[in-house]
Amino acid sequence: MAEITIDLPDALNAWVGEQVAGGRYADAGDYVRDLIRRDESELLERLRAALDAARESGTSSRSLQQI
Fold first, then answer.
1. Theoretical Cys-Cys bridge with 12: which of 8, 20, 44, 55, CB 3.0 to 4.6 Å?
2. What's the maximum distance between 2 C-alpha atoms anywhere in the chain?
3. What is the C-alpha R_g of the chain?
């Protein structure tokens, strides 16, 4: 596993500490990994929604050269 070191302002560091103290996360790394996973999941969901919207929009009447 790779290691990343980040500097946080005091307010953000306190927020991370509160999240860990709340018991949902084992440590700060666990919290950051969860944030990254959620961000990735939201991105994938937005991409899927865009693809669904494109499919639902139908076939274009324009030629490939016009597009």
1. 8
2. 59
3. 20
* Unique residue bearing structure tokens 């440590």: 27
At 67, list the tokens.
């597009």
**Per-residue model confidence as pLDDT tens digits over 1-60:** 899 999 999 999 999 999 999 999 999 999 999 999 999 999 999 999 999 999 999 988
For the record, the structure tokens of 21 come out as 């103290």
Lookup: tokens for 37? 């996973």
CA–CA dist 26, 14 (Å, integer): 15
**Of 45, 50, 4, which Cα lies nearest the Cα of 28?**
4
Structure tokens at 39: 């961000």
In the numeric block, which tokens belong to residue 31? 């919290």
